[in-house]
Specification:
This protein has 334 residues and is an alpha/beta fold. It has eleven helices and nine strands. The chain has one domain: 3-Layer(aba) Sandwich (Rossmann fold), CATH 3.40.50.970. Strands 1-4-5-9-8 form a five-stranded parallel beta sheet, with helices on both faces. A two-stranded antiparallel sheet has the order 2-3. Strands 6-7 form a two-stranded antiparallel sheet. The structure holds thiamine diphosphate (TPP) and magnesium ion (MG). Magnesium ion (MG) binds next to strand 6. The site of magnesium ion has 6 residues, from strand 6.
Length: 334
């Protein structure tokens, strides 16, 4: 099996990133991974209601992309994009209230995943029907332009989800209307147990962009600086009225589809190969070489993150579950 279909692409000139921003990017990636680990731990303790999905391997894509957004921009993340929620400003308390299905969560305990909306932060989480959010994201981009908000919509889809009809309808409409939409295909080599080679026949998923008359690019989704630079360019372009960009971010799903999946169908050699490109460790090494991180700084940061997560989990666990009497309220349309 080919490990990746990534081909070299010319990258845009890098926007300037300060040292403080680099540390912030690293902190957000570390925080994302630590949150994912905590969610898996809670799942194994029987505390999580329903499934648990992690973004292990996807931290650079989720964090680097959302880092290029302004507060007024809209985020339409997928189920591997916890890092994007955090960068957009979602609090750890809300993340864990949601995961633990507490009454005070954003879905009032009706759901335990990222299937929530937080209009105050302009975050509109995905529904289970993969790609169904792409036309919705295009619609929000249209509404936002009509309101003259000067905002951009950043939407994500898996390589598996990119093969359904909604992808075409949403992206085509956005392209024709030159809407401020940036769509990232997170190509993590698998859709549940189906490998990429059984999902599509194209060399690169970004080649599809030509069929819509928009720019498309395939990038190394494990490199946070590349992800940020490319997304920043696409977002700036969308904001100036240049229309959508399709970005294929090539990564690897470094965990089973969900907590209940041991991923025994993934060749061990493939995981081994990708573990050398671990996005968090790669960036950590890079910042070490630049003199921005050392073992003491890393340890201090990890300790800070662990404390923040423990506080949020303790807070969420102390909150009540929804009262059984009204647990079905708001679940079904009248
Ligand atoms: C119609 C339907 N079938 C199955 C599922 C369960 N499901 C959720 S995500 C997913 C895999 C999606 O793969 P991909 O789009 O590549 O995203 P990834 O999980 O790899 O990030 C599946 C099978 C679903 N949500 N809807
Ligand atoms: Mg996938």
């Amino acid at each position: 099996m080919a490990a990746t279909k990534m081909l070299a692409v010319p990258l845009p000139p890098s926007p300037s990133v300060t040292n403080a921003q680099k540390i912030e990017l690293y902190y957000c990636m570390r925080l994302t991974r630590a949150c994912d680990d905590a969610i898996l731990r809670l799942y194994k303790q029987g505390q999580v209601v329903g499934g648990a999905y992690t973004g292990r391997g996807n931290e650079a894509t989720a964090v680097g992309s959302a880092f290029a957004l302004e507060d007024r921009d809209y985020l339409f993340p997928m189920h591997r994009d916890l890092g994007a929620h955090l960068v957009k400003g979602q609090t750890l308390r809300h993340i864990f209230l949601q995961q633990l299905a507490r009454d005070g969560s954003l879905t009032r305990g009706r759901d335990g995943t990222g299937h929530y909306a937080d209009p105050s932060l302009r975050i509109y989480g995905n529904v289970s029907h993969l790609a169904a959010m792409i036309p919705v994201a295009a619609g929000v981009a249209l509404a936002s332009r009509m309101r003259k908000e000067d905002a951009v919509v950043l939407n994500y889809i898996g390589e598996g989800g990119s093969n359904v009809g909604d992808f075409h309808e949403g992206l085509n409409m956005a392209a024709v209307m030159k809407l401020p939409l940036v769509l990232i295909i997170e190509n993590n080599q698998f859709a549940y147990s189906t490998p990429a080679r059984k999902q599509y026949a194209a060399a690169k998923l970004s080649d599809r962009a030509a069929g819509y008359g928009i720019p498309g690019v395939t990038i190394d989704g494990t490199d946070v600086m590349t992800v940020y630079a490319v997304c920043r360019t696409a977002i700036d372009r969308a904001r100036k009225g240049g229309g959508p960009t399709l970005i294929e971010s090539v990564t690897m799903r470094m965990h089973g589809h969900s907590a209940s999946d041991d991923a025994s169908y993934v060749p061990a050699a493939l995981l081994q190969e990708w573990s050398r490109k671990d996005p968090v460790h790669t960036f950590e090494r890079q910042l070490g070489k630049e003199g921005l991180l050392d073992p003491d700084k890393i340890a201090a940061l990890q300790e800070k993150i662990a404390g923040e997560i423990e506080e949020a989990i303790a807070f969420a666990l102390a909150q009540p579950l929804p009262p059984p009497g009204d647990a079905a309220e708001g679940v079904y349309a009248p």
